[in-house]
Write a structure and sequence with these properties.
The protein is mainly beta. It has five helices and 41 strands. Strands 1, 3, 5, 6, 9, 10 and 11 form a seven-stranded mixed beta sheet that branches. Its main location: membrane.
Length: 572
């Protein structure tokens, strides 16, 4: 294959070591199966070196992972052999941290540049060194099966054997995510950072980051193979895109408006490429500052057979729409004007929707005359709603105020506000026999609707979020009887459980108390206490009466209020 200067540099090893920091313990490529041990008549070598799998699978152009168990020794010798390919290198692996495992990383794309640059390890504490054998091929490693053998000594007998199966790969999936504009392109260097800061979506607010995840491509090895010493992954990727084999492009990436044909020019400065060789994925991160609001962009990636990764041209595509940056209040009509309405109780709240990426931060304030009712930073939820909860206990119903949402580059939005009578609730939860997975609440009445939540008694020790065992579906305002709740975390033995009435503070009919770490969907509070009832569960037929639980005592209620921060409002 006549590719233009496809070379591997020593940076391959460094890159994979960096990746291993966040990858940690990675599931091996290939189906787990018992290894095939070969006993040495003079020494039980299989007790110290072996393969963890009988078979490993990899896509051509990707990174093959071969796990070696090194129990009781620090070094081993591994040979990869294919007579058909004329390929039989032997490498020495060193278990530097003596954890009994070395993960060999074989770049199946970069073999033309020599054996020393083809191998890496999954942990920076370990090392791999080419020892001997033919390891150069005119193309990336040929498709087929390779026999694997491992020895405790260079000249010793094989202690174990396995197989590496190399097949054509190619792109199989392509999807988009978004992350808040407070991050820069350079803030993403690991897949953990990407998943922790982004969500899958096809809607992106202008200025936020859009991320494309390319799956099953076998592309990581090809990118690393183009990486010169000290060169960025982004530059190596652009070099890969720019390669040609005669009249054929090796690979192609485009981001284009289908209506106008206008395209985004990709260069090393406006894209961040994050490799995930452990699962064959590659992430591409770009900024949307200069993209047009209201336009759809189609993102396409394709590789041809000239790449050596596929046997025929294969491509995938995805799309996203750029939206304006805005945030709105949830309001209702009052005196002919859209008004943000809240309540004179400890669970007072303001809520709304936004186009911003989840995890973006907004500033919410409410003022009545010269008094500040609340001023707080809120985080956008995954469904792009936001909510601010605060305490208006003692505030006179009928009080009017002004509410504002701003920040994160949105145009400031201000609406009038109005305080209604405080919300009320009651709940009855009897002692009952239970299988530990399902409980039944006798009745609950909630003036504005919400959820019934089952807490364990760690709630009384201040663990408001951690104590949640299960939650009902959203319940409309009014009375509901025999509310059956399936527990996400079942009770394994009998004891007390707490049934509590929770508000829907951001009015999205989804229970967000846990995901918001107690900021949203807080309990109904009356007379300074959460509205709750305690019942005893007899799990596994241990018995129990069917009377109304004792509820909260004064000390337990105080602890719970402290945990939730439900204190009287201090005014300016």
């Amino acid at each position: 294959m006549a590719l233009t200067s496809i070379r591997v540099r020593s940076l391959f090893l460094t890159t994979l070591m960096v990746l291993s920091v966040f990858v940690g313990s990675v599931s091996l490529v290939g189906a787990a199966a018992g290894s095939t041990l070969q006993q040495n008549s003079s020494q039980d070598e299989s007790s110290v070196v072996s393969f963890t799998n009988a078979e490993y699978n990899a896509s051509r152009g990707g990174i093959a992972e071969i796990d070696v168990a090194t129990s009781g020794v620090s070094t081993a010798y591994v040979t990869i052999n294919s007579k058909e390919a004329g390929y039989n290198p032997t490498v020495k692996v060193t278990d530097g941290n003596l954890d009994g495992r070395v993960r060999i990383l074989l770049n199946t794309y970069d073999t033309p540049d020599g054996p020393a640059q083809s191998f890496g390890v999954g942990s920076s504490a370990d090392s791999v060194e080419y020892v001997s054998g033919a390891a150069n091929t005119s193309d990336p490693l040929p498709i087929g099966e390779y026999s694997l053998t491992v020895r405790p000594d260079r000249g010793g007998n094989a202690a174990d054997s396995a197989t590496l199966k190399l097949t054509y790969g190619g792109p199989s999936t392509f999807g988009t995510l978004t992350a808040p504009d407070r991050y820069n392109l350079s803030d993403f260097s690991t897949t953990r950072e990407i998943w922790n800061r982004s969500v899958s979506t096809s809607r992106v607010a202008q200025g936020d980051l859009v991320i494309a995840r390319l799956g099953g491509s076998g592309l990581a090895g090809a990118i690393i193979a183009n990486q010169d010493q000290g060169e960025s992954v982004e530059k190596a990727f652009i070099d890969f895109l720019n390669q040609r084999d005669g009249n054929s492009d090796v690979a192609l990436m485009t981001i284009r408006q289908p209506q106008t044909g206008e395209s985004v020019r990709i260069n090393p400065n406006n894209i961040n490429v994050v490799l995930a060789p452990e699962n064959g994925a590659v992430f591409f991160v770009i900024d949307t500052d200069d993209l047009r609001v209201g336009k759809q962009y189609n993102w396409r990636f394709a590789v041809s057979s000239a790449s050596g990764i596929v046997d025929r041209t294969a491509g995938v595509s995805t799309s996203f729409i750029v939206e304006p940056r805005k945030a709105e209040f949830n309001t209702e009509a009052r005196n002919g004007e859209q008004t943000a309405v809240t309540y004179a109780d400890a669970g007072a709240s303001l809520s709304g929707k936004t186009t911003l990426a989840p995890n973006s931060e907004l500033q919410v304030t409410a003022r009545s005359g010269d008094k500040t009712l609340t001023s707080q930073t809120v985080t956008v939820a995954e469904d792009r709603t936001w909510g601010a909860t605060f305490d208006l206990t003692g505030v006179e119903p009928g009080t009017e105020f002004t509410a504002t949402v701003s920040g994160a580059g949105v145009e400031e939005r201000t609406v009038p506000g109005y305080v209604k009578e405080g919300r009320t609730a009651s709940i009855e939860f009897s002692d009952q026999d239970s299988n530990g997975s399902v409980v039944t609440v006798d009745s609950v009445n909630m003036s504005t609707g919400g959820f019934v939540v089952i807490h364990d008694t760690s709630y009384e020790n201040g663990e408001a979020v951690q104590s949640v065992r299960g939650v009902s579906k959203y319940l409309t305002p009014g009375t509901h009887e025999n509310v059956e709740i399936k527990l996400e975390r079942p009770f394994s033995e009998g004891g007390d459980a707490i049934a509590m009435a929770h508000l829907d503070t951001n009015e999205n009919k989804e229970f967000d108390f846990v995901s918001s770490q107690g900021e949203l969907d807080t309990p109904y509070v009356m007379d300074g206490n959460p509205v709750a009832s305690t019942g005893t569960l007899a799990v596994g037929g241990s018995g129990g009466s069917a009377s109304v639980g004792p509820g909260f005592g004064a000390i337990a209620a105080l602890v719970a209020l402290v945990a939730l921060g439900l204190f009287a409002l201090r005014r300016d």
